[in-house]
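>> received
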Amino acid sequence: MLAEFEKYLLNDFPDIKSRKLFLAVSGGKDSMVLSYLLRQLELEHTLLHCNFQLRGKEADEDEQFLLTYAKTYDLPIEIQRFDTYKIAEEKNQSIQETARNLRYSWFEKFAENARILILTAHHLDDSIETFFINLLRGTGIKGIKGIPKFNPPYYRPLLQFTANDIFNFIDAQGIDYREDSTNAETKYLRNRIRHSLLPTLLELEPEFKLKMNAFFQEILEVNAYLENSSDLAHEELIDSNEHGQFLKINTLKNLHHIIIQFSLSNYGIKRSNMNAFLDFIESTSGAIFKTDSHIFTKDRELIRISQESAKTEDFEAKISNFPCSINVGTNTLLFDIVNSSELNYDDNPLQLDFDKLQLPLKLRNWRRGDKITPLGMSGKKLISDVLIDNKVPQFRKQETIVVEDSSGTIVGIPGLLINEFFKSDQLTKKLLQITLS
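>> returned
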């Protein structure tokens, strides 16, 4: 096993001797074998041990065992104790989830740079058990590839070996280890798979584990191909400009739904909502699709992507002092008083006769039923119709802000138009200038 381990190790990291190594160690068979193998290859490593204080005296004895082992072989050791029961209760999490989060959060503190590797002693049986756990939970392709060998800064050099390989090596070398009594309990799903399902499968097919290893290798290749194809598709699919990020609908329609899922996974698109997203792509302009993290808004040939936190719903602000600036979602409104000699007729900035306004001004989201008297007209018009006439994209409609004075009259729509009754004339002395950026 030592020669085979060295071959795998040097193949993955030819510079392993120049790396700084940390080993997550419990005192059990797997991690003690890994530490033994590292010592045989004269690879220095620091032991990292978590005492979750879940097994009373047994957990303390594990800790003492490792302290003695580290002293015997002159190995540095770091030990962290956690009040796991208390933390799980505070966070309303399961004990297993809490322990896992605590463990990896602590490990991250040792990953100071890219030269550091944190080794864990997961083996092939662990990977097969994880496969079945994910399968029973309804995973997609990413969940059936088993445990990854390398996920920076974590490296798992025993994934090619089975539990039997490790046990036989322990027996041959006389390696001391601690047995975790909870490993025999069947209340945990992983243990039920380990003690019930896997033995049955091995009876049906003695080469089952080796075939699963070959399967994992093939799935890794398929996954790598999909990720590479999705990265290329993402570059063609996304259009970024000063207004945000957009999906090109025509490009989207030509992609296989698996590529769409991989390309947009960071935006909350996944297998469970893929069919609904595909229906959304075919919907009419103005349709909205929400994920846990993002909002997709369809507008003609593009779909705008915005983060959930960027919404401007229920926005309201009052201003009476100038100059000032107000942040609204992804936009900024700048208010200033300028001399009438600086009059212009642009839509941005807007300019209104300051003396015709009743302060304070109120900024708010436009609402259905809002009306304004557009410049050059005598009658009122629905703002919804104004937005349509000006071909304002759907995503901009959602972000549209109106300015009204204390009389409740909408005096302008920043970046678009002003109310006819607040335009400048020969008597105008000061202008309120509103710039949308």
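>> The two ends are 65 Å apart (CA to CA).
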